C-alpha cells in the first residue's frame, strides 16, 4: 500500500490552548482511514489544519512531496484534498443540480463532469429525484448527502469528512456509511473524522484514536474495533 498523505508532528493552537499536540499519521492510497475520539479531542482542528483553514504551530502535511501546510486553502483544494462542507453549508437558494455544478467549478473536462454527475446521482438517488428542487428544501440528512456529492464533483484525490453522521437518524447514518464504503471501492482515499467510533472503524481499513490532542492508538480498523481500551472508552464498555 502506498501512502498518499502524511502528517508529521502537527501541532495546532488556539491562542495559548494547544488543541493538537504534535500528531503524526499516514493515509494509504485507496483506503479509508478513521480518526476517532471524544468531543474536544482535536479531530476537527486536525481537519481544519489539513484544509489550510488553520495554520499549524508546527509540523507538516505532505501530499506526495508537496507540503500543504504552506499552501492556501484554495490551492489545497486544487491539489486534490477536498473537505466535505458541513451539511448545512450547502447553498440553499440554488437547486441541487446547481450545487453539484458548483462542486466542479475548478474543472474544465465537460464530458467527465457529466459522467461524474451521473455517478453521484446513482450514489444518492434521492438527489436525482429532486435535482431541480431547491437545496434548502432538503432534510438535514439529504443536505449532508448533497454536501458529500458536491465534494465528489471536485474529483478529489483525498476526501476529508468531519462527522458526516452527526445529528442524523440511525437509518440515515447507515446510509451515509454505506455510501462512503461504495465511494471508497472506486479507489478514492477517505479520511473520516468521527465520534461514531463503531461505525467508522467498521468501514475503515486503518484508524487512529485521538485523546486530548494526542494519538494514543493506531491500528487496523478491525483490530481497534476489538481493542478492549477502545470498547471501554468509546463503545459503552
Ligand atoms: P468535536 O467533536 O466537538 O468537534 P473535536 O475532537 O473535533 O471535537 P476540536 O473541535 O478540534 O475537537 O477541539 C479541540 C480543542 O480545541 C477543544 O478543547 C476545544 O475546546 C478547543 N477549540 C476548538 N475550537 C476553538 C476555538 N475556535 N477557540 C478556542 N478553542 C477552541
UniProtKB/TrEMBL annotation:
Gene Ontology molecular function terms on file: ATP binding; ATP hydrolysis activity; branched-chain amino acid transmembrane transporter activity
Keyword Magnesium: no
Residues covered by the ABC transporter domain: 5-237
UniProt cross-references to InterPro entries, sorted A to Z: AAA+_ATPase (IPR003593), ABC_branched_ATPase_LivF/BraG (IPR030660), ABC_transporter-like_ATP-bd (IPR003439), ABC_transporter-like_CS (IPR017871), BCAA_Transport_ATP-bd_LivF (IPR052156), P-loop_NTPase (IPR027417)
Keyword Nucleotide-binding: yes
SUPFAM superfamilies, alphabetized: P-loop containing nucleoside triphosphate hydrolases
Keyword list, A-Z: Amino-acid transport, ATP-binding, Cell membrane, Membrane, Nucleotide-binding, Transport
Signal peptide: none
Family: Belongs to the ABC transporter superfamily.
Name this polypeptide is given: Amino acid/amide ABC transporter ATP-binding protein 2 (HAAT family)
Lineage: Bacteria, Pseudomonadati, Pseudomonadota, Betaproteobacteria, Burkholderiales
Amino acid at each position: 500500500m502506498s501512502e498518499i498523505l502524511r502528517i508529521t508532528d502537527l501541532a495546532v493552537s488556539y491562542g495559548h490552548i494547544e488543541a493538537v499536540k504534535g500528531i503524526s499519521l499516514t493515509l494509504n492510497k485507496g483506503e479509508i482511514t478513521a480518526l476517532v475520539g471524544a468531543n474536544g479531542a482535536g479531530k476537527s482542528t486536525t481537519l481544519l489544519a489539513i484544509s489550510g483553514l488553520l495554520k499549524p504551530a508546527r509540523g507538516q502535511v505532505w501530499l506526495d512531496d508537496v507540503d500543504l501546510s504552506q499552501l492556501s486553502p484554495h490551492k489545497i483544494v486544487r491539489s486534490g484534498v477536498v473537505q466535505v462542507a458541513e451539511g448545512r453549508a450547502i447553498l440553499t437558494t440554488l437547486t441541487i443540480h446547481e450545487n453539484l455544478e458548483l462542486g466542479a467549478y475548478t474543472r474544465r473536462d465537460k464530458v467527465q463532469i457529466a459522467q461524474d454527475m451521473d455517478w453521484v446521482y446513482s450514489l444518492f438517488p434521492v438527489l436525482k429525484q429532486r435535482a431541480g428542487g431547491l437545496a434548502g428544501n432538503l432534510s438535514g440528512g439529504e443536505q449532508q448527502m448533497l454536501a458529500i456529492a458536491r465534494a465528489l464533483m471536485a474529483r478529489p484525490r483525498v476526501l476529508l469528512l468531519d462527522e458526516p453522521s452527526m445529528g442524523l437518524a440511525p437509518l440515515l447514518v447507515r446510509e451515509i456509511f454505506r455510501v462512503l464504503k461504495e465511494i471508497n471501492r472506486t479507489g478514492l482515499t477517505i479520511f473520516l473524522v468521527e465520534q461514531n467510533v463503531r461505525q467508522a472503524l467498521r468501514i475503515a481499513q486503518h484508524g487512529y484514536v485521538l485523546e486530548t490532542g494526542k494519538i494514543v492508538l493506531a491500528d487496523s480498523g478491525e483490530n481497534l474495533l476489538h481493542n478492549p481500551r477502545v470498547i471501554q472508552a468509546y463503545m459503552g464498555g
